[in-house]
Automatic annotation (TrEMBL):
The lineage of its organism: Bacteria, Pseudomonadati, Pseudomonadota, Betaproteobacteria, Burkholderiales. It holds the Pfam family FtsX. Keywords: Cell membrane, Membrane, Transmembrane, Transmembrane helix. Its main location: membrane. This is ABC transporter permease. It is a multi-pass membrane protein. It comes from Massilia terrae. Residues 20-260 form the MacB-like periplasmic core domain. The keyword Protein transport does not apply.
């Protein structure tokens, strides 16, 4: 019976083409507007590393002065000082892995004559970053712990930068000149662009920007006095000038990550950090002596307001527009079904029950929703394509995955059925005797 009613629904689309086209287009526009904004929000707010997000943590230590501070006040900054980052990293007593990260920008001097010098964004990090964040490799491998400790002049290139410098070949073992230093290529990271870029969302390429161009050892970047590319908060004047003064100061400019064995180890990590704060307080640092704060990946994204209220408001407005389209669709369906009152009366007189009439008309509205969803999906793709031309960040966000594709079709059919409930119920109330008498 379902198949028969479905065929009737398809035929009804041709019965009044102008009215049907108006319903389908109204529904399609509403679905396209709502799904375009929902798709972008979905990409922005997704878990970038679901298999590990509950056991990757960012510690925030309050190293600010006590003057002008009141208990319960948030830390002045959520980054970390060089001294604290290296202390926690070298201690090796917390978590399975630890990673120090800061953004850098270097001038690249290609050997190719057809390429001029250009600036590239990258990361200075400890070697654990690759295994911690599951960075895939196309060629080679990360630098070793010994190269990390020895501050070796080695580099891991992104696939994009490697192809730009050397073409489509394996460049491992070759050298590239950056910042006036000759670096040996030890690996090439395959395309790795988690959204959002949770591992380095403060400054750098932004939450949804392009992948890093290169990675160099943290100790090597410090040895070459490579300035950070990003924000820095200094709540006191440095007593020592120059780069060395920054390293010994309480300026916060480094991001530090801890990978625990499981999410259940969060308490142990917090206890270790609190003990570290108390120890430093006894040495004259951390005058506020506040407990350390710990954030997993999703909490870290929320703290940094990666998904703003404006983005959520845009989705609500889009779904409000869809509701308005549904109201118009209800009116059009009422007009469409009212014309068919004589048909309903004859069917009722021949023995069709109200339930059968209700089912038939509801399936017909589902057919409208299916066609509207297909057109709405096409419009949504077009809208996302236009949005992707606006910026690099939007280019990375404005595309549908399989779940959003399925949701678009389901939403369209569900919206059409919802809009058809009232007109269908009205159609079932037709009195057969009155319709037969009027014929």
């Amino acid at each position: 019976m379902f198949g028969y009613y479905f065929k009737l629904g398809v035929r009804s689309l041709r019965r009044n083409p102008a009215l049907t086209a108006l319903m389908v287009i109204t529904l399609a526009v509403g679905v396209a507007a709502s799904m375009s904004t929902l798709t972008i929000l979905h990409m922005m707010s997704g878990d970038p590393i679901p298999q590990k997000s509950q056991r990757l943590f960012v510690p925030v230590l309050d190293s600010g002065p006590k003057e002008g501070w009141s208990p319960g006040q948030d830390p002045d900054d959520i980054q970390m000082t060089y001294r604290d980052a290296t202390n926690l990293y070298d201690a090796g007593k917390v978590g399975e892995r630890r990673a120090i990260i800061y953004g850098v920008s270097m001038a690249v001097e290609p050997e190719r004559k057809d390429l001029g010098a250009f600036s590239e964004q990258g990361l200075a990090a400890t070697h654990d970053i690759f295994q911690m964040f599951e960075v895939p490799f196309k060629y080679g491998q990360p630098w070793t712990a010994a190269e990390d400790k020895g501050a070796a002049d080695v580099v891991v290139l992104s696939t994009g930068l490697a192809e730009r410098l050397f073409g489509n070949v394996n460049p491992v073992g070759k050298r590239v000149r950056m910042k006036g230093v000759s670096w040996q290529v030890v690996g090439v990271a395959d395309h790795w662009k988690p959204l959002p870029r949770y591992y380095h969302i403060i400054s750098g390429n932004g939450e949804y920007g392009e992948e890093e161009g290169f990675y160099v050892p943290f100790a090597t970047a410090i040895r070459h006095e490579t300035q950070h590319s990003g924000s820095m908060n200094c709540n006191e004047r440095n007593a020592i000038p120059g780069f060395n003064g920054i390293l010994q100061s309480n300026c916060t400019w480094i991001q530090f990550w801890i990978e625990a064995a499981s999410a259940g180890d969060r308490g142990d990590v917090s206890s270790y950090l609190d003990n570290y704060v108390h120890e430093q307080n006894r040495m004259g640092r951390f005058p506020r002596n506040q407990p350390a704060k710990l954030y997993n990946v999703m909490e870290w994204l929320d703290l940094n307001k990666v998904v703003g209220n404006d983005n959520r408001l845009a989705v609500w407005l889009a779904f409000g527009f869809l509701a308005l389209c549904l109201v118009n669709t209800i009116g059009l369906l009422l007009a469409k079904f009212s014309v068919r009152a004589p048909e309903v009366g004859i069917r009722r007189a021949l023995g069709a029950s109200r339930r059968e009439i209700f089912t038939q008309f509801l399936i017909e509205t589902a057919v409208v929703g299916l066609v509207g969803g297909a057109i709405g999906l096409t419009l949504a793709y077009g809208t996302l394509g236009l949005l992707s031309m606006g910026s690099e960040s939007m280019k990375n966000l404005a595309h549908m995955d399989a779940s959003m594709l399925a949701l678009t079709l389901v939403l369209s059919i569900a919206a059409a059925i919802l809009a058809g409930l009232l007109p269908t119920w009205r159609a079932c109330q037709v009195t057969p005797a009155l319709q037969l008498k009027s014929q």
